[in-house]
UniProtKB/TrEMBL annotation:
UniProt protein name: AB hydrolase-1 domain-containing protein
Species of provenance: Paractinoplanes toevensis
Coiled-coil region list: none
Domain AB hydrolase-1: 32-180
GO molecular function: catalytic activity
InterPro entries assigned to the protein according to its UniProt record, in alphabetical order: AB_hydrolase_1, AB_hydrolase_fold, AB_hydrolase_sf
Gene3D superfamilies in the record: alpha/beta hydrolase
Amino acid sequence: MHPQPPLRTTHIAGGPRNALVYDRWGQYGRPVLLLHGLLFDRTMWWPVGAELARVCTVVAPDLPGHGDSPARDEAGLTDLARDLAGLVRRLDLHRAPIVVGHASAAPLAAAFAETYATHHLQTIEEEGGEVPEYFRFYAEPRHGLGVLTAYANWPVSAGHAAGRGTGPAFPHLADPAGFAAGLRARLR
């Protein structure tokens, strides 16, 4: 008999001005911080979180104005990186996280890694495979372009954030088990 995988739980970190809603899998091990691209939300990471749940702590926050996190007038990279660091510190795991930034969240992941202890930084900009039909729901933008006003100072174009042009790739959805295996190899 196999033990049940850790369940996904939803939490809120921060205060009224900097609240972030996040999902968490697992209680132990090195944290893996999964950052969704603009116009998406934390649900895009659910297949990967489920794959990683047995071997580490996975955290997938909603960026401000996305999913269940309240909007902010401005979502600066430095301030948001600080809020994410507070979230990771609150987990009390005493290990530097692996930080994964999807597409337009790559600058945020890099800003986090420049200032805070990070075990590994991975950004998703490269081409991904075809997303299987049963994962396509997770690859759909959840918000209109209006949410981008708070992110005006980010070094991304609205077209890239919206998935137009070359658009964001979804290798974590084309092969969640393979993507998770790559992250598991970096946990040591």
